[in-house]
């Protein structure tokens, strides 16, 4: 019995691989290393460098490793990039997920966990947003993920495997033991960008939009520590293996912070007063989005351990400092 983690060399996937190997699971990673890194993968896991769209390779990996569960992180993740390159996003996120689902069915893999996103809701009408809210993604990225959720529902009904589609809100922070973190080159995520600015890796940070209908006019997001997120995946894996029914669940804490609040936190925790420019809105960005976590707590008994923006930022900064040291070597 082993777990196939696609995208296990990436930010969230590398935390998941550590979480699984810490729990004594056999893990095989499939990653094409476009944005991920082989060095980020826990040494107990094995890496197959390849693409999720390669059905022959998937058949072989699933068969040779006795895979009973797939955790599917591989994908393209930048909202504005998806606006500029929608077909690239539909290929990497939707078409290749279809191939992976086909391989799972052919290989008799019973359990499937999928990285979905809060972007499937667009700008919700109510806060916090529950899983039953209208699905109205505002970007090709969100639509590419929603289509995969739909394929999973249809393929599960036809072929009998079970799945959990976990809709992540904004993932941030790093492994508290310092073993992995967000290493993405040219990252666009707010906390990562702010940490890079605090450490002098960037000259400044630009706030994208100051005229949103929020308290201070900047975008509001629900930032979840990556360790709490991967723990939710561990809970979901146990639930599915124990015979739990298909589950679609939000992964967030249930409260949000504005861009300016995040910037202030990074400045305070780092002690660096980096330059901040105010700019126009970024294409595809909703104004505010905050999770209801009622369902995931009820169905999986998920209990967050790092629900604290200062702690999230501190762990992200610590990782960023380790990247600076790594690049200096
Ligand atoms: N970071 C967030 O805030 C966030 C929020 C919601 C959802 N997600 C989802 O979580 C997942 C992981 O995101 P991340 O932040 O770790 O991104 P990431 O870019 O660090 O990781 C993605 C990994 O997938 C690999 N990959 C990409 N396309 C592949 C393919 N076709 N075949 C094989 N490997 C491929 C990359 O090399 C990389 O290692 C994504 O599916 C993303 O949509 C992320
Ligand atoms: O340099 C920056 C970067 C971001 N922002 C703002 O900060 C907020 C968060 O932006 P991120 O880029 O960090 O994250 P997104 O909300 O765009 O998207 C993230 O969360 C989504 C779910 O909410 C998706 O899942 C997606 O994969 C993931 O990238 C937004 O208001 C954005 O406009 C800035 O002002 N300046």
TrEMBL record:
Q: What is its EC number?
A: 5.1.3.2
Keyword Glycoprotein present in the record's keywords: the answer is no
Q: Name one GO molecular function term.
A: UDP-glucose 4-epimerase activity
Kindly list the biological process annotations in GO that this record carries: galactose catabolic process via UDP-galactose, Leloir pathway
Pfam families, per the entry? Epimerase
Pathway-wise, it operates in: Carbohydrate metabolism; galactose metabolism
NCBIfam families, alphabetized:
galE
Subunit info here reads: Homodimer.
Q: What is this protein called?
A: UDP-glucose 4-epimerase
User: Lineage of this protein's species?
Assistant: Bacteria, Pseudomonadati, Pseudomonadota, Alphaproteobacteria, Hyphomicrobiales
């Amino acid at each position: 019995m082993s777990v196939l983690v696609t995208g296990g060399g990436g930010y969230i996937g590398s935390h998941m691989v550590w979480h699984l190997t810490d729990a004594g699971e056999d893990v095989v990673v499939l990653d094409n290393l476009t944005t991920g890194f082989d060095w980020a993968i826990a040494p107990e896991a094995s890496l197959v460098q390849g693409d999720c769209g390669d059905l022959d390779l998937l058949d072989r990996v699933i068969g040779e490793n006795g895979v009973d569960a797939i955790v599917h992180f591989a994908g393209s993740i930048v909202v504005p990039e998806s606006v500029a390159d929608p077909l690239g996003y539909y290929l990497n996120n939707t078409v290749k997920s279809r191939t992976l689902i086909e391989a799972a069915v052919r290989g008799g893999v019973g359990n499937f966990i999928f990285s979905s996103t809060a972007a499937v809701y667009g700008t919700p009408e109510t806060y916090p947003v529950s899983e039953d809210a209208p699905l109205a993604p505002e970007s090709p990225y969100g639509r590419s993920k929603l289509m995969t959720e739909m394929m999973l529902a249809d393929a599960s009904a036809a072929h009998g495997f079970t799945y959990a589609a976990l809709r992540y809100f904004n993932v941030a922070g790093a492994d508290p033991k310092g073993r992995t973190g967000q290493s993405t080159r040219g990252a666009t995520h707010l906390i990562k960008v702010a940490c890079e600015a605090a450490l002098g890796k960037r000259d400044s940070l630009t706030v994208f939009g100051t005229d949103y209908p929020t308290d201070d006019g900047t975008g509001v997001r629900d930032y979840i520590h990556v360790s709490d997120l991967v723990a939710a995946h561990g809970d979901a894996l146990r639930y599915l293996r124990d015979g739990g029914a298909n589950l679609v669940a939000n992964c967030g804490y249930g409260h949000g912070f504005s861009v300016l609040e995040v910037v202030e936190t990074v400045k305070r925790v780092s002690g660096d007063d980096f330059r901040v420019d105010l700019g126009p809105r970024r294409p595809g960005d909703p104004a505010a989005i905050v999770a209801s976590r009622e369902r995931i707590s009820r169905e999986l008994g998920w209990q967050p351990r790092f629900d604290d923006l200062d702690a999230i930022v501190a762990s992200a900064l610590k990782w960023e400092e380790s990247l600076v040291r790594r690049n200096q070597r």
